Amino acid sequence: MKPGLFARLNRVGAWMALLFLVLPALIAIPVSLTPKRFLSMPEGEYSLRHFHNLFTSPEWLSSFAQSGIIAASTATLAGTLGTLCAIGLWRVTSRYSEMVRAFLLLPLIIPQIISAMVFYRLLVPIGLIDSFPGLIIAHTVLATPMVLITVSASLANFDPKLEQASRNLGASNWTTMRRVILPQIKPGVFAGALFAFILSWDEIVVTLFISKFNVYTLPRRMWNGIRENTDPTVAAAAVVLIAITLAAFVIHALVARARARAAAQKE
Amino acid sequence: MQALTRHMSPGWLLVAPFFLVVVAFYLGPLVNILWLSVTEPQPGLGNYAQLFTSDSLARILWTTLRTCAITTVFSVAIGYCLAYAMVHAHQRNQNVMLTLLLISFWISVLVRTFAWLMLLGHGGLVNDGLAAAGVIDRPIRFMRNELGVLIGMVHYMVPYAVLPLLANMQTLDNRVMAASRNLGASGPQTFWRIYLPLTLPGLVASSLLVFILSLGFYVTPAILGGGKVLMVAEYISVQLLVTLKWGTAAMLGTLMLIGVLALLWIMTRFMQLSAVFGGGAAR
User: Fold this and answer.
1) How far is CA A149 from the centre of its chain?
2) What is the ipTM of this complex?
């Protein structure tokens, strides 16, 4: 069946839509290269001074480090909690398990502005507002559902007979989990942890509410930069973020490919 | 205790840590907020009565619903076109398209909002380009109005609109469409009478997902709206951070929560949630 006029028009439209999705972000690149002191397009002259500023300013560097620490802690915690939870939900055969799963996904789907109120109410009384533990707790609750989803997807392809075989051969629960289940779902765990890292690294709405002076993450500093709308350093930061996104994307693609290859070998 | 463990699958022990975290650190304060909405500043339904007495509140709700509805229509239309092209493309093109879609999905919302700020602003690239091409002689006002907010929101929501549609379209049996063509229906007839009805669950799920996400969207409306397009999420933040009116904020949060949960419930009637979020509970 040859594609009709409609299908061909649609295809052109789809590629234009994709360009509309991807291209706008690239404007950050020329803006970051402007030699001027304010946000503007460079005209003939280019300069790396804003990148220099980004990588030498103590404020920006500290924000990079803070976001890195919070995101790495979140990825570790969410990766652990989410993986355990996914395996648990996979093992129980109960009519409640789907209800519990839906309940545990709520922090991901409830609008972030409501989550921001929730964590503000949580952290003020216990004195953790504007602190690293406070942000890590909040980000972990938001990010763990992500891990739950990716690990559950991995488990869906895992043959439960393997687990039974391992137990029949005398392995304990713990050994089965460590030597049989975990190696099979490793790609899902890594993907989930990566998503959790990105979610935390990028999180702005909840962060705006529960941080003030002590903790100043990268999104927080960018938010201020965008609101002030003058200093081109924010454009340089945007370029760095795009580069990091692309790098994360490549890592994720490699993991997915390894997973596909492992699946192909099993056939 | 032993009786309990015998009747309970040991799997629940693995679920327990995160379950307790969510109950203690999320559900607890959430219930507290619902409670605040009927007790702050004084007990009663005073906060909810504001909905009918305050003009500004009514205007904000109306702006929010209108903006979300328009965003949903455009995002789903573009998303449908994209998903349709993707399932009908050759494998290699399909991979390229999926990669581009996911890259845009992954780029930070702050970076994208910043990009639109640069593109749509007064001396922005879009206005300069249109002026240079002679299309316009005065700059169009994109910023600090609904147009800018809509552009930014649609741009953010399209990938979310595509994913449920793609999941739905990939399960369709193409032989049905081939049968329709063989029986003499034209291409457009086949599309309108066979394909579109078959993709209805995907369309509904995608629309609801985008609408839900738009309802609570904060970043883009706050920056591109520049305070001129006040939506519920930004209004809540003003109530909390500036005027410290927890009662009103809690009331609006409760309304938003009820709306979102109701829409989610409708959504599960059309599509398994896990299918939307990447195949969680396939088992």
Assistant:
1) 13
2) 0.87
